[in-house]
Specification:
Layout (H helix, E strand, L loop, with lengths): L2 E4 L8 H14 L4 E5 L5 H8 L8 E4 L7 H11 L2 E5 L6 H9 L2 E6 L3 H21 L5 E8 L5 H12 L9 E2 L2 H9 L14 H26 L1
Parallel strand pairs: 1-4, 1-5, 2-3, 2-4, 5-6, 6-7
Helix pairs in contact: 1-8, 2-7, 3-4, 4-5
Pfam families: VirC1
Organism: Inquilinus ginsengisoli
InterPro entries: DNA_Partitioning_ATPase (IPR050678), P-loop_NTPase (IPR027417), VirC1 (IPR009744)
């Protein structure tokens, strides 16, 4: 079953939020999901603690995942659940390398800025080293996050550079939405939000489901290419 790893050494790119939203969509669609919180700040464990009654029954959050336990957690969850999603620490460390080595897909959340692109390039180098160590191709893709309708010069330049370098980019983006910030603040899922909580939660759900569909499609294509 696919293990999806979120990795970026730069903070503020929406890494944990993207991992959580993806897990919520898969759970809402009926899949059992394990969400491994390997970030020392424990953002996902904190989310689960804020409103435990609204954590879906088929969404398991595992806190305090360390470099000593991460492989066991991934292997156990992958043998049990259709989806395993790992939120990694921002810095490159042993746990990051271990998780990338187990990944069926590494997602690199990135805002459309040069600084984010530079840090994303570091993650790609780690992926390539682990691919060499494990003697297998490790699929990865950039996930643009916190995007808006207006595209600045930086964003256009980064997008063109990625295309020119043939770096895969997920066809859907995580748009800047108040709903995504709200769930981290108050708990619950995007499906629990009402108009009194945030404006237009339906748009956030539509966006989240488009990202989840793009992830599944990317996984399917990779499987077909490696078959």
């Amino acid at each position: 079953m696919p293990t999806i790893v979120f990795a970026n050494s730069k903070g503020g790119v929406g890494k944990s939020t993207s991992a959580l939203v993806l897990a919520q969509v898969f759970a809402a669609q009926g899949a059992n999901v394990t969400l491994l919180d390997a970030d020392p700040n424990q953002p996902l464990a904190s989310w689960a603690d804020r409103d435990p009654e609204h954590v879906p029954a088929n969404l398991r959050v595992v806190p305090s995942v360390t470099e000593e336990t991460i492989l066991d957690h991934i292997d156990t969850a992958a043998a049990r659940d259709p989806f395993v999603i790992v939120d990694l620490e921002g810095t490159a460390n042993v746990a990051v390398s271990y998780a990338i080595g187990r990944a069926d897909l590494v997602l690199i959340p990135m805002r459309g800025s040069q600084l984010d692109a530079d840090q994303g390039a570091r993650v790609i180098k780690v992926i390539n080293r682990q691919a060499q160590a494990y003697r297998r191709y490790i699929p990865y893709a950039v996930l643009f996050t916190c995007t808006t309708v207006l595209r600045g010069r930086d964003f256009k330049h980064i997008a063109n550079t990625l295309r020119g370098a043939e770096i895969p980019v997920l066809r859907a983006e995580m748009v800047e939405r108040a709903a995504f910030r709200a769930i981290m603040q108050i708990g619950g899922t995007i499906y629990d939000l009402e108009q009194s909580d945030v404006s237009n939660p339906e748009a956030a759900i539509e966006n989240a489901e488009a990202v989840a569909a793009a992830v599944v499609e990317h996984l399917r294509v990779q499987q077909e290419q490696n078959a």
